[in-house]
Design a protein that fits this description.
The structure holds 2 protein chains of 2 kinds. The radius of gyration of chain A is 18 Å and the shape is elongated. Chain A is α+β, with helices and mostly antiparallel strands. Chain A has a domain of 104 residues: Roll (Thiol Ester Dehydrase, Chain A), CATH 3.10.129. Chain B is of the alpha+beta class. Classes of the chains: A alpha+beta, B alpha+beta. Chains A and B meet through helix 4 and strand 2 of A and helix 4, strand 2 and helix 6 of B. Strand 2 of chain A pairs antiparallel with strand 2 of chain B.
């Protein structure tokens, strides 16, 4: 059941708890903010500078969903030898700590904080990926714990099933 | 909700609408934000356990968010049409929990509903309440696509700010004063 697409990608066995992935830097421009917001989050404070200046956020800021999407893109781009992903499970504790304003540069790290396998699906491991996203002033803008399935190279290897 | 905090009914279910996902739209989103072969490449996706292209979970959530925003604007319009003053919803501090349970494929019709499962007055932001918002997405076969629990702010109607708070709110809307206040943080 080997998958020809992912055979050279990073599998469960290639990863370790504490591993950090640097997301590089992304400059968030006004055009990017407005384009995303028009499609997915058309509140005036994401679309219109005048309305945004009068809001409590004090200026045009990116949709939180946009910030998350940009970080997801950078994680996939920067994952060493690509992740043999088998899909996302979900996420917890997503916090938008501070708005991302026009021309802010965001970056940060994703840390593999937890790895586990289950007897019900020995072919996959479950990674917890801890996002720690900051702006150019080193202020935290977003944190999140994302759960993602990853292929196991040797599913018959014994499973130490941790109790949650 | 664009209703006042006081008017929000717990566990009332609001239909946000349905969205039919096309493969072209799923691939377009994922090429930008979730570039994995089972989201972007119909041929390679056949090798995955999904056996075809599925939507990025983030995409399905962003569409759900769009339907929620449109719903809030609609409620606001209805209140204005009825001659009432609509409430104010504030920015969301985050999502507590999101669980993707069934993949979304080409042609799937996903229906979104929203309910407020609890509300309380904010301890830190005077004049505001905190809502726990649940969004549930289901496909045309009634399979659960995702559940999402988030937090959101909603303004209290029955609240008179103190003079100091009114001054602060006024000051933050003056560009120069705002910069000074933010520098002081």
């Amino acid at each position: 059941m080997s998958n020809p697409v992912t055979k050279n990608y990073a599998h469960f066995e290639d990863l370790f708890v504490g591993q950090e992935i640097d997301l590089g830097a992304t400059k968030v421009t006004k055009d990017m903010i407005v384009e995303f917001a028009r499609e997915f989050d058309p509140f005036p404070f994401h679309l219109d500078e005048k309305a945004a200046n009068a809001s409590l956020l004090g200026g045009l800021s990116a949709s939180g969903w946009h910030t998350g999407a940009l970080c997801l893109r950078k994680l996939i781009e920067n994952f060493p030898s690509k992740l043999a992903s088998a899909g996302g499970v979900g996420f917890t504790k997503l916090r938008w700590k501070r708005p991302v304003m026009v021309n802010d540069t965001i970056g940060g790290t994703v840390t593999i904080s937890k790895m586990r396998r289950t007897k019900s699906n020995p072919q996959w491991g479950i990674l917890t990926l801890q996002f720690d996203i900051k702006n150019q002033n080193d202020q935290s803008v977003m944190t999140m714990d994302l759960m993602n399935l990853v292929e196991v190279r040797n599913p018959s290897a014994p499973i130490e099933e941790q109790t949650q | 909700m664009t209703r006042w905090f006081e008017d929000i009914i717990i566990d009332e279910v609001h239909e946000l609408g349905s969205h039919t996902f096309t493969e072209a739209e799923m691939i377009k989103f994922s090429k930008l934000y979730d570039n994995q072969y089972f989201h972007t490449d119909p041929d390679l996706a056949k090798h995955s356990h999904f056996e075809g292209v599925i939507a990025s979970g983030w995409h399905t959530a962003c569409i759900g968010h769009r339907y929620m925003v449109d719903f809030l604007f609609e409620v606001e319009r209805q209140l204005l049409d009825a001659g009432e003053r609509p409430g104010v919803s504030g920015p969301s501090p985050g999502i507590n929990k999101m669980l993707f349970t069934t993949p979304v494929r080409d042609g799937d019709k996903v229906s979104y509903t929203m309910s407020i499962t609890s509300k309380r007055k904010s301890g830190t932001m005077a004049g505001w309440g905190i809502l726990i918002v649940e969004i549930v997405a289901k496909n045309q076969r009634n399979d659960l696509v995702y559940t999402q629990e988030s937090a959101g702010f909603s303004k209290l109607r029955d609240y008179t700010p103190t003079l100091k708070q009114r001054l602060q709110e006024w000051a933050i809307q003056q560009p120069l004063l705002r910069k000074l206040m933010q520098r002081g943080k």
